[in-house]
Amino acid sequence: EFAIRSHEIFVLATTDRTVLDFDKYEKLQDGSTLYLLQREDQALPVATEEHIMFTPHFDTLIQCGTYEYYSSEGQNSLPYAIAELIDNALSATAKKTGTRTIELRMLFDESLGKPAVIVLDNGCGMTSKQLNNWAVYRLSKFTRENSSFQEGYVRPVPVPRSLNSDISYFGVGGKQAVFFIGDSTRMISKAVGSPDVHELILSKEEFERKEKNKEDVYRGTIRNRKPGDSSHVRENDQRFLHELISEEPGKQSFTAVVITGIKSEHITFLKEDFAKWTRELAHIYHYYIHGVNGNDMSRKSTNSDHLPKIDIQVTLREKSNRCPRVMNLREVDDDMQTLYINATADMFEFKATTGQDRGTVEGLIRYHPFLYDRETFPPDPYVVQAPANDEDESGVQHQARGKRPIFECFWNGRLIPYAKIDEFQWCTQKGNDVPDECYSRFSGVLFTDDRFQVTTNKLTFMDLEMKVKSKDTIFTRVVNGQAQRSIIEKDFRKWLQNCHKKWDKQVKFLGFREIITRKDLATKKMQHPWATFSSIELDGKLYKTDQLVKSQKTNPIHHGTVVRFLLYGEHKSDVFATGGQVEVCLEPKALYAMTKIIPISKIDRTVTDAAIKKNIENDFAKLPDKLKVDWPDGNPWPQNAVRPAGMPLGKTVIEILNKKGESISRMPTVGQSTVIKLCIELKNFVISSFYVISFVAQHSPKWGFWFRKIENLIKPGRYTLFLSTIISESNATIFGGRNLPSYELNFTIKEGNAESFVTGTVSSTLHVGTPFDIPLHLKDQYAYSHLLTSGFFRQCERSQLVLHTKLEKLNIACQLVILCKIFSIPYFILQTHELKVILPGLKKDTQTIKISLLPGNPHSLHVNTENNPVIVENRNPVKFNVEIRDEAGNITAHPRQTVHCKVQGLPPAVVDCSSTGAGQLLTKPINLNIIKGEPQTLKVQFEVPVTLVVRELKVMPSTRVSLIKIYSRDDKNLVLRNNERVEWLAGGSLEGLFYKLYDEAYRAVPLTAEIASKIKVNWKSEVDLKYLVQGKLPDIMVPTQVHEQRFFQVSYQDQSVSVSFTIIPRPNEPHRLKATLPQSAVKLGETLSENISEYEPDQTKIILFHRLTSICVNHMTVEAEGLDKSAITFIWQVGTEIVTGIRFQCGTPGWREMCFTYQKYVACVKVEVTAGNPAQLQLVSGPELPLQVLNGHGIPTPFLIQLSDEWGNPSSDQRVVVELWPSPPALKVSVTVTSQPVNLEGKAPFTVTSVNGPKGYYQLEFKGSFNNKPIPGPSVNLTVLPDPNKPVSLSVKYDTTAMFPAGGLFPVFSVTVVSDEGSPMTTFNPAAASMWLWEGVPLGKIPPQTATPLVCSKPMENERKDCFHFRDKEIPERAGKHIVQFSLRIDATNYLYSNQITLNVVANQPVKLAPDSQPPAPVVSCCTDIANRTLVENMTLRIMDSYGNPAGQDLGGQVVVSITSSGNKNLPLFEGKRRTHCISLAEGQAHITRLAIMENSPGEDGSAYTLCFQPQVSMLPQTLFPFELTFHFYNGMMFFLLFFNKTLKLEADRILKMPRRVYSVRDNFRGQQDVLGMVGHLAYVQDDAAARVISWFIRGDMDCVITRTSEAARRIHRDTQGRQQVMPLDSIYVQPQNRPLPHMRNGHMLFDPPGNPVHARDLLIYPNNQECCDKVFKNILGETLLIDDLESANNYRRMVVQNNMHCPTILTREGDCISAKGKFGGKQNKAPPTGALKMFGAPIPQPYYAVKEQIDLLSRYRAAVEKREKAEKDREDHLQDMKSPQMKKKQEDMREKIMQLEALERHLGMFVDLREKDAGEPSGIITKRVK
């Protein structure tokens, strides 16, 4: 308790220092902590504790499963958690006018306490209430209260790139981040204007303690204290807090997030990967740090948008004795956006406006050109770059971007790391105007605001891709900040075409030939397609087919002719492209014998044709040219000599000579190649036959090449002796496409005399009656065929050919051609026989042949029957035995021997005698109609292809039962015949019936128990067998109804013999009257649709009295309530009386009884009478009348309409439709249902939701329709009153006389909301009013989606309060027509728009001279070539305002151009040795045709100078800013080399750092013994679409570790406790060969395959262990196919199945899957988007290798230049030394010594004058003679 004196002044305030009055006090919640202070800003004498509750917001329950914090796609997710805390800091510093400072302090120094992470900012801070709100999980800025008495959230003003700092959003990220990083967080904050510091601690340990002790988990305390007070920090492991708290005094506001309990893996990552995670943070906040233009290092400026500077500084302290690591994120120069920006040659800017939410996306596309032999697209620094492969000569330029998505996505200015959009349709529609590679040379970025939803962890968008790719999205190009009215597809393609033409440097391929497949490439993916060309244009020089070329940078250097040029891809005509290859045929071909494919870049472009030809000719002269043949033993054989058989061919000696006449025995060597030895091969050929002799002679140093005599030439014929030079190792006679030298000798060998003969092949098996031939061949002494002469033929004519045989009846015919034919043999012989042939006059004149005889061809048909005719009983089949015989009567079997048997009236019978020659025919049972029991005769025909046989068949009557007759014992005359109709008294019976059976001869069949058991009757299911054996039948009961006829049948079941008859009952005497109704109900006023019948009940038809006449209708009456008797009519029919005209005219619906009377008979029936036809509508219930409704409001009470007939009875006919119509039509009525059928009760309710129309009187009319006929209904009078709370228009007022200079401010726009009454409305929030601004012309009634929204300003004191004010709005920076329109958001879906106002924006004040576009920095030299001295060419400079608008159309003067430099006095001079150059300036512009420096201009080699274009205009009071252009000047080769080498190294580093797709799962097992690695790391996939669908298809195997041995697999399984899946290679088996695609069979296509099918595994690129990886992916992917799209895949599968082949699983590039079972569709068969997958990585870009090759070439060239310069210097130094006095003196001394030596030798007699040599001694030999 305490007391307050009456004179003391105090204030009562909350912990937020909000002073309470009565109203505010009433709003306080129970349990609030209050201060009793002497003044509002009084400092707290001691710290206080405020108890708070931070129960999670209800959104936690309803959205808890919507957004979950998931793993970060292989990247460590810690940077993204830290980014959540930076987001909060950016939001807190959003309104900071000075430098916005954010510090990240990583305290891992044990001397300071336990590890901690601190995020500190100088933002607005938080009050205790706001700190309490921060603790509430999922309490977003839209639902939280910033304090107890402040308003809610207001969306910020739109700014470029959405850099509004509005990124602390959901009330989730901060808590989620701190507990992801550590276990505890301490929030320390001081709000602006508050003297107190608020401190809150949230700890996992504390939460668990409270839960364990059953305490309130969500209750805590906020410590409120004065700045700098750290007395509450007593823990030794938090000593660092004292230093942090000591910094608080003097700070206006701040917030510090202190996280402790840091996880060990996070500490390791923060220490070891400091550069990596700081680079990722710099990437996320790139545009907040560097401004809207990004980190363009060429401009050397940041924050180009003049926004407050943002400093994000990171400090990492590890040990006290080590200097802390400090990094300002502004200094990071290798984040992806920096790399993209600084590798950009041109930009394409656009905007995308989505549908109803009017979300706007700003977009940039940056072009990274191909320069000479490399791509400039930046590499991804997170991707591990593969090492360069020097052996790779494919020449194919890999795509720069690869398969990575084009667009990175930023939300409110910060990066959303996992949100990447692959493409838009308009920027990927490839055409013929630019090469396909250009579509992979641009990167992109999208900037969105909060109209697009992101997940709470800000890792990905929820709806961005769906919205921007919607058909309602409008894309607009932006030029100089202004939207263009054009077709963006055309603009983009034109821009891309211009980029390619202006920036790309490529090779032009000319003369297209064909598309080929290259099997020489190891990678199957790269084998097809390859386009071939006949020529190229490279660096201004034309290279053609057959042109001589020389290679460079190859080992060895190649010379040869161009075969063709190759370019990968589907090209059909001339094309510009990167890379490419050339196929060179190495010359001379005879020496090299091969072609070589090298990259086009390795063609030596400096060598001359003469030098190449000379090298080729020198090599060609060394090759073998001819053979020299000698005959050492004499007797050489001349050409075409004729020699007898057996004569030897003499010994030969051969020499191989080259073109120089030199004898050689080996091929000339090429470099270090293997020595190729030569041999001589001798082949002796018989023309048109195989060679007889073949020898190979090796070279002998003594004898050379030689062959012995050939003595076995005995075969007659023409011979060729062929001597050829061959390669010793391969026996090849062709080397390099050229035949090696050879020698050919033709001669003839004659045959000897005939001495014997042989018989040719004769078939060992002969058939009876079939001729056969015996061929005879004459032989000489060597057993070779002897040619028949004319003399021999004359001898044969005179002699006789004798054929001896053991067959006596064998007939023989002799022929002149020595062929024998044996004709028919009369009987069949099974033994083997010998046939002897004798030819007189020869040494061996007899030959014997063995033959065997078999039956001959079919000749006749034999039918074996005992009797003729053949007798058979009717209804039985017939059997016939048949045989087929040859001419001799032998049974013979031949293929297709079929015997047909045709019996009259029966189907043919067939038997196959192909295998045995005999068979049995069985016909169908014969079923004739026997007449009078007499037999009948039939003809039977037997047919075979060779003959026809006819037999007779006699059919006898059958003894089976064929007839049944029924008699009556009571009536002897009664015989029931088949199908007879019998009348019998109704209700009576037929008794005493019995039956008899007869066969086909009408003989009575005796009844036995067996026969009687087969008798069946249809009127009784079971009959006593003993009665049937006696012939008795059961009695028949006649029906009681007259019209009920009955069918009766008696049948003999097995033979289908039956007799049937029908009994018709006769009527009996009548006894009562009965009436029936055709329908049970009838409507009021309607007549029954059918007639009522009255009949006697014992008849089936309607019969009243038997034998009565039609007079009875006069005595018939009918009575019923409400019955209209005037229309009733009675009509007589036989036995029936029809009543028509039944109709009820009045009464209520219900059941009514009708009574029919005739004499004493009465019949009553009941009929239901229902309501009549619908005739009117009645209003049953509705709102009270008179009815008055406010305009725009509804009628809460529904109208209930009842359908009735003309008597007012409710009708439920649901075919009636009721509609509601307003009258007159000016009234617009919204109804839940405008028309509807009535319900089961005949009612239709109508609820009017809104009524809109001018003030006045109206009617609501209800109308019905039935079968297109109207039904009248009621009408209700309605009065519409104006709604004072309904806005109907916007009134806009502004200064219409004002000018609108670009970049200035608009005048104040006052917008009044006019109500339905015409009065202004003040109930709307200013945030609901918007101003829309766009460039162009008025468009419809609403602003376009590309319009820029502007928010309403707060009203000033002197302004009206009944309207909205839009003040200080910036005028667009681009001059031209602009449109302004204002809108008011009435509710979530309704907007009110003003009229569109056209404003003319004019240029601002002229301030500078500038070109239309910034030219690149020129590089000049002081050479004579004008092209290398040109500084500027065809450039126009204009006077502009500060925003780039032409602003000096009425100004003139001149532009003075000068060259300046900082600190360099040696300045280059313009042409004419001028230091300045003047250009006329007219109408605000100056055109420069060409500006160049003079020849041999002064200047410092390697310096950079500035061209200054200074405008001189006398009409302006101020000086215009000049245009400055930097250029480089060089004058020496060494500087050029150093400069270019440095540029190439930077380019190589840039390529390595370019973003590249990677498999993001870390492989912890790679490098271990016998471990290959994870599946996802074993292969690369170039194509993005293929990588996506293949990675998804084998997603379950991507993290599987592949080992070489099972032991290694078991080790990993054991170490990971079974959590890691493994696959050992030694436990799997795959087929070694590759199966062809399903549409291929035996090397041919079964059909033309759609969709470019390939095996999915063929798209994988293996960087290492290719054989093992091939086995792995054969096992995983199998025969899985990849096809372009789903339609092609389905067509392909259908065609494969139609060819009776199994179709494997098919994947499509669109992400679909068709299983091997044919199933497709659904989410389970569709790959998710790229961002949700862990995909195969992409290979390293090919341009990297080209750049490395250029670097190596430059290094070698530089070394050569340095070596040359050193040699020249050494030579000059040596020459100078030779001329020195010391050297001259030494020369004189040397001459004196020589003279002394000569004198001494003369004295000794040893001197020889070398100038006088002995003529007999060889030159160069010195002979000394000694006495």
From TrEMBL:
Q: Where in the cell is it found?
A: Chromosome
Any one cellular-component term (Gene Ontology): chromosome
Q: Listed GO molecular functions?
A: ATP binding
Q: Where is the SMC hinge domain?
A: 1569-1693
Q: Which SUPFAM superfamilies match?
A: ATPase domain of HSP90 chaperone/DNA topoisomerase II/histidine kinase, Smc hinge domain
State the SMART domains in the record. SMC_hinge
The answer, when asked if Nucleotide-binding is one of the entry's keywords, is no
Q: Which Gene3D superfamilies match?
A: 1.20.1060.20, 3.30.70.1620, Histidine kinase-like ATPase, C-terminal domain
From the UniProt record, give one GO term of the biological process aspect: double-strand break repair
**Where is region (Disordered) located?**
1765-1789
Question: Where along the chain is composition biased (Basic and acidic residues)?
Answer: 1765-1777
| Annotated keywords | Chromosome
Q: Which PANTHER family match?
A: STRUCTURAL MAINTENANCE OF CHROMOSOMES FLEXIBLE HINGE DOMAIN-CONTAINING PROTEIN 1
Which protein is depicted?
A: Structural maintenance of chromosomes flexible hinge domain containing 1
Give the organism the record lists: Seriola lalandi dorsalis
Organism placement in taxonomy: Eukaryota, Metazoa, Chordata, Craniata, Vertebrata
